[in-house]
Amino acid sequence: MNAFKPHLAAVADYPYSKFDARVKLDQNESPEDFPAELKARAVERIASVSWNRYPELHAEDVRAAIARHEGWPEEGVVVSPGSNLLVLALAEAAASVIDTAPAFPYYKGAAVASGTPYRAVPLGDGFALPTAGLLAALDAAPGVLFVPNPHGPTGRLFDAADLAALGERARARDALLVVDEAYHAFAGTDARPLARGNPNVAVLRTFSKSWCLGGIRAGYLLASPKVAAVARALLPPFCIPAHTGAILLTALESPGYVAPLLARIRAERDRLLAELWKHPEWKPWPSASNFILVRTKDAKAAHAKLLAAGILVRRQDHYPGLEGCVRVSVGTPAENDALLRAAFSS
Ligand SMILES: Cc1ncc(COP(=O)(O)O)c(C=O)c1O
Prior knowledge:
By secondary structure, the protein is an alpha/beta fold. Helix content is 40%, strand content 15%. Helix 3 (83-93) crosses helix 9.
């Protein structure tokens, strides 16, 4: 189409297929809903705001609450409808996008959508961070380097020293390292100290996982004021709806529900891992996150077998190096029991 930029001919939709299933373990969501008491408070708050008025330009009230919660200067906080939108904004801003292969697919998706040159460095053995290759990529052409830690979709946790080395090289080249901490709460890791001392490092976080708010669509960036200003300028104005803001403010006022949930998820993850290691054919990888990557003989067959038992997991076998793999989100104890029963059934 002549109205569109030529690079958009290569754009593909996000790789997600919808299936209906009783037990949903395909999107690394929290298996528990936002606490009922907080939901009631958020609904009251939504009813009390004026729906005829636009919300704040950059969700300034939510930004201030995030800044307090994270101990981050307010001018360095950017809020967006899902951290995906910040990935897109940063990819649009980027001279080039660099990530690992495999990695969370939207880094590439956002680069392709925005017509930004894209490079990927393959993970090493055991899904190790290819630090040397990423340093070389930053040297070859500075750009925005996305590193999810823990890594999606492998669940692997990277060494702080390697991330610091990448951050230092980003500083030397005036590039940007974005540590995507979508899953950091499950690992107990924190890239803020790295970003605090280095304006060429930013931290991306989301409300979609440990905050039990996947349906709300909200994420945020903690960055230097300069990086934050660029990201903010690339997001549409007034893009955090009033109802989203009300829910986020309620969550940020009462974040105490998160820690017990994390403890439950970690305990279930470790139980699931211990049980899956006993499987005669499947090979799970250790995970620092709320999901487990499992190598099976045939991902299509494993997916179909689980789906027939009412359990939905996500195929990952389209990624190079992940042949036969499926990814299983950690569910409630009952959901995990159902998964194990189906996995071990003949
Ligand atoms: C590594 C990683 N980053 C970012 C996201 C996107 O999160 P959001 O729901 O905030 O758009 C996901 C979602 O699964 C993810 O796995």
